[in-house]
Structure prediction request, 213 residues.
Amino acid sequence: MKFSASVIVLLAVLLSVGSAGLMLFLNYDDLFKPTPVVKAEFTSVEFDADDTSYSPAETHSMNQLSKELSLLKDKLLEREKDLDARESALSMDLESLEKQKRELNRIQDDLSSKLAEFESRKGKDLSEEKLKEYKDTAKRWVEMGPEVASVEIQNWRQKRRFEEALSIFETLKAEDKAPIIAFMLNSDQDDLIELADALAMRDRGLLPSVSME
Prediction:
């Protein structure tokens, strides 16, 4: 049986293509799938060239970075301790300020109390002094007679001190008030008569006794 040359060539081509396809199929994973990357895992921060696939230069760089990170960690810890110490100091300062504030409030309250006591004592002393002045003036009015007393009371009224004159007049006894009121009522001066009415308002019992005279 004889085959032509073209048939033989065709068979050779088909065999070649089939062989190539078979080889491609058998080696597909090696030819087309990417090689998986094995992640390097380190058991410590120190990089060991024997445990990794890094070059010595890369390992040195990693070790240097690890040392820098370790130094940074130490600095952060030191900084944290410093901040804790400052926080503690601030707490103590705040407590001291609160204590000083309470002490200042106590001193202020004490001063206010003493000031109020001083003002009260001062007012009392002034009242006693003023009362003594009133008594001395009333005694002088009695000793100098109704005429002088009437003129002086009228002068006090003109000086807008009539309330003080009334207070002094109240310290007099009834028998000392009556002659002064009588002198004013018997005067021909309207101001003295009006003044007598104002004084008698403090003791209405004076008017009948005056009219009886």
